[in-house]
Amino acid sequence: MWRFVEPAFTDDFRTVLFDHVGAGGSDLKSYDAKKYSSLAGYASDVVDIGNELGLTDAIFVGHSVSSMIGVLASQQCAGMFGKLVLVGPSARYIDDGDYAGGFSEAQIEELLQFLETNHLGWSVQMAPAIIGNPDRPELGEELTNSFCRTDPEIAKAFARVTFKSDNRADLGNVSIPTLILQCSEDIIASKEVGEFVHRSIPNSKLIMLDATGHCPNLSAPNEVIAAMRTFV
Q1: Which of 128, 151, 198, 200 could be 206's S-S partner, Cβ–Cβ 3.0 to 4.6 Å?
Q2: C-alpha closest to that of 118 among 90, 159, 65
Q3: Is 26 a catalytic residue?
Q4: What pLDDT digit, counting tens, does each position of 156-188 carry?
């Protein structure tokens, strides 16, 4: 997912990429339903990787829900990360009073029920909508294939954790400089959501991208790279 962005930084930085448990080349036997019943379990994996590699003052780059995983990891281990780059973050996807997360609770439940009953069908239908950029169908196909390669049972559990999570209270505890990259049109994390994250994190900077869709790391990597260079 980062193959278009990561090479731009290898000359100046040591870069570390990893797969969350259940995705990519991860060890499926490491999955523990209790541990991964909240995003804190995934954050602890990030901390474990950082400790194994001896990372200090590193820059965490996270996309979508991984943005909140990075927020939690930075608070689990002070000093490991010196900056955060959050691409398309959302602290809560469900509307709540004056807070506009983008979805009603009923919409999220319908989405999750669809995934639980038809993983492949959900992937085929949702991936192109998430990626946006209908003039570039190959991007939607790539995300569809990525979803389909994920272990179905883990994918269902991860989706429920993701879309039911509420990390709004964690944002105010971020104590390190943070860059927020927000796409101009994004059905998953709207402009209002990005602005909320920006208002809630002290010492944060919001950059509005011309890119559309939820995955600018795939659809507009040069714009993501340029925005990141101003920060890192």
Answers
A1: 198
A2: 159
A3: no
A4: 898 899 999 999 999 999 999 999 999 999 989
